[in-house]
Sequence to fold (345 residues):
Amino acid sequence: MSETADDGDAPTRVAIACQGGGSHTAFTAGVLKRLLRDWPDEYELVGISGTSGGAFNALAAWYGLVTADEDRAIELLDAIWEDLSASDLSDRFANDFVVGLSRLGSTGVPMPQISPYAIPGSEAGKDEIRDTLERHIEFEAIPDYCDREAPELVVGTVDINAGVFETFVDEQVTTDAVLASAAVPTLFEAVEIDGHRHWDGLFSQNPPIDDLMTVDADRKPDELWVIQINPQETEGEPTSLAEIADRRNELAGNISLNQELNVIRRVNEWIDAGHLPESDFSKTAIRRLSMGKSYHCSTKVDRRPSFIQELMALGEEQATSFLKSSELDESNYVTAEPRHKPSAQ
Fold:
């Protein structure tokens, strides 16, 4: 994407981090489509990361860009989500059943707990995702496009044997790496990579940020755009079991994200205070692009085509507002965030 700004100055380097969240990440696809369609000339994309469904979007956008252009990236985002949608009759029935179970379970109704390892054919869903990805992405060719001029691609997982977060970067991104990032342990068996088993990246860096920041100085992003699925704030107090389950799900999905963003903010503060020399360290502005609308946590497994299209349309709408604000309102460029402190008694 953009190599130089219109006025000849160096472009502002941008990295995009795509949070995971099941079907809700169709919102991210809509955001990316809008950003790619009207990418500002003064910005250069230097990296994109994702976890779980966010990894699908990051991969599709990256692959389309490095193999062709923005139009190809948009086509891939549409094609992958069309294939992931529950479009035929049997798939729609299964989708409604899973969503119903998820919603019922969130109310506190006792539900049967069955390991995916004890269910015959439990890997069918994962195999379908594998087929979808490999239908549109030539994974063997990915290393051919991982040169210095291409944006960095990062996919997040968790290594359950070593007990550590693990990311796969550029040529390390394989079908198994992306499947591992989306392997929800209550639904899918773990994915083996290099002798270790991996689970859904929602349990790790959601989304990966550190890899986007620890690059050569001339590729380090000036701005980090976070496409956030889980709401950061909420009004009132969750009191029903369903409300509690919803908010717990949202908070869990944001823990690692906020930890990583706080590291960036702290570095920015140290640079402002003169503790770190600006000759060696640079500040990174953080901008969040959120859904701005809440959905029940059970809809994270809802693949109805109409719901997927609703989320993608919402993503395009939010991205439109985001692009306008980036042009007009520098107050969105957050370098530090005040912490809430209890008042003195």
About this structure: The chain has nine helices and eight strands. The first strand starts at residue 12 and ends at 18.
